[in-house]
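Hey team,

Filing this mostly as a record. A colleague (T.K.) asked me to run one chain through the structure pipeline before their review meeting, and I want the input and output archived in the tracker in case anyone asks later how it was produced. No errors, nothing strange. Just documentation.

Input sequence:
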Amino acid sequence: MPEHLKQKKHKSDDTAKQSLKNYARYSGIAFQMAVIIFAGTFGGYKADKYFNFESPILTIIFSVLSVVLAIYTAIKDFIKK
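Output structure:
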């Protein structure tokens, strides 16, 4: 096989590996965000049930705080390479 075709194939393999690595990284960040938001919302729901509140005030507070925390961790992970 000619040398220039070997180099071209090697570059496309590196690009594919990098794309797969990026996909795994960003999928992991999205999954992490989903877990944080779910845990915060579920924790707020359970706290509302525990304290017998008529309105879901703790669910709202915990879910908003968990979204802020999820965005913070995602930005921190995006900046880190």
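Quick notes for T.K.: Residues 34-81 form one domain. Residues 3-51 form the longest helix (49 residues).
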